[in-house]
Structures are given as structure tokens and as C-alpha cells.
Write a structure and sequence with these properties.
3 helices; mainly beta; 12 strands; globular; six-stranded antiparallel sheet
């Protein structure tokens, strides 16, 4: 279903400071696909130093630890340079035999395979399975509990850094402003799924059916105010 951009759907709050690659909202997921080979797109609102690891977790959080049975993706900035704020990175065909990434490198442990419904992804820094700081979470479940189990003790905020796509979304992509906003304003816009996202939920794959969104996800840079 096409989500119509409507500026009246959101209002700007007082910006908050983003200080390092260790705070909620330092990154945001702006593309999610589970049809059929799994893709993610994310934007960073801070510079990412060379050597940084960021973890994308498909397991659920119980308030103290992750459960097991799904998978984890570890992304690394191995470019030799700092990746600047505003950069969009795509992770493509993650459950296929030929996964790829637009910048950096990654490895997958377990079965990293976000589902078409009642699932989600946590993003954090620290060590594998042991976050020191949560950065973001997104779910296509009907509630946070349905898709992520819990965000207790994560520091994430529902509707800002823990975002619900429409229930059962198979593929969705942010299609809102990418120029002239501060990081906190972008986070608010990205969280307004009903205003600024294109989403589809249907039988079979919708990744190339001519109805937005299709793959590949956009890598257009965000310009930060």
C-alpha cells in the first residue's frame, strides 16, 4: 500500500544531542524487506570511525538478554576511513547465497532471516549478544511485545528509536525528507510510518512488482542541518 507523504502527520520536537556511536538514535533503519531474501537499509547520524562494529540482532530481548534460535549480523567499517554522518548503507540478499553490502563488510551467525510478520531487528554496539548501548529497533509486529518481546533496559523509546512498521509489512522504505533537518527531526520523520513510508504486504514477493517500494533501496545521502 502506498503511504502518502503528509507533513501534517508530524511535528518537530526539541532536538537532542548525538555525541558518539553509542547513543539511541545514532542510526535509523530506513528500509526493511523480508521478501524473499532479506534486505536492510540504514542511515547514520554520526560519523563512524574505521574499525567500528555494529550488531543487527534478529533474536528477541527479554529485558536482560537476547534469546536464541535466530541470527545476528555484524557489520564492520573496514573502509580505512571514517564514514560520514548522513551516509546510507544497504545490506542485501542476506538469506541468499550471495549477500552484499554497499559499504564496509559483514558476517552472519545463525539464521538472520527477519520474517514477514511478528519479527524485528535490534541494532546495538558492544560485543556480539552483549550490548553496551542500543542504537535502534524496528518491528513489523502488531506491538513491540509481538515483534521484539521487550525494550526494557535498552534506553530506546517507542515511536522514536523503537519503531513499528504497519503490522505484517513484508517490504517497507522511508520516503520522507532527506535534506535540511537535524538528526532528532529525521528520527521523528522516520518514525512517522503512516506519513513517510511506502509499504507492501501481500502474497509472494513484492520486491520488483512496480509498486513502491521496490529493490534496490535508495542510498541517497541525508543532509544534516
Amino acid at each position: 500500500m502506498k503511504k502518502v507523504v503528509a507533513l501534517i502527520c508530524w511535528s518537530l520536537a526539541v532536538p537532542f544531542a548525538l555525541v558518539a556511536q553509542s547513543s539511541p538514535g545514532d542510526i535509523a533503519i530506513i528500509g526493511y524487506n523480508s521478501d524473499p531474501d532479506d534486505n536492510l537499509a540504514w542511515v547514520t547520524f554520526v560519523d563512524i570511525p574505521n574499525g567500528t562494529n555494529i550488531f543487527f540482532e534478529d533474536n528477541e530481548w527479554d529485558g536482560f538478554s537476547f534469546n536464541v534460535g535466530e541470527g545476528r549480523l555484524t557489520w564492520t567499517n573496514n573502509t580505512g576511513s571514517t564514514i560520514p554522518s548522513g551516509t546510507v548503507i544497504t545490506l542485501d540478499d542476506l538469506s541468499s547465497g550471495t549477500p552484499s553490502v554497499s559499504q564496509g563488510s559483514f558476517s552472519i551467525s545463525g539464521a538472520f532471516n527477519p520474517a514477514n510478520s511478528a519479527d524485528g531487528v535490534f541494532v546495538y554496539v558492544g560485543a556480539a549478544g552483549a550490548p553496551t548501548s542500543f542504537l535502534y529497533a524496528m518491528t513489523n509486529g502488531s506491538t513491540i511485545a509481538n515483534g521484539l518481546q521487550s525494550i526494557t533496559n535498552t534506553g530506546l523509546t517507542v515511536g522514536l528509536t523503537a519503531v513499528l512498521l504497519s503490522n505484517g509489512t513484508d517490504i517497507g522504505e522511508y520516503d520522507g525528507p532527506k535534506t535540511g533537518l537535524s538528526p532528532s527531526q529525521y528520527l521523528e520523520a522516520i518514525a512517522e510510518v503512516g506519513c513517510f513510508w511506502n509499504e507492501q504486504d501481500g502474497t509472494g514477493s513484492q520486491t520488483g512488482d512496480g509498486t513502491d517500494p521496490d529493490l534496490p533501496f535508495s542510498t541517497a545521502t541525508f543532509s544534516l542541518a
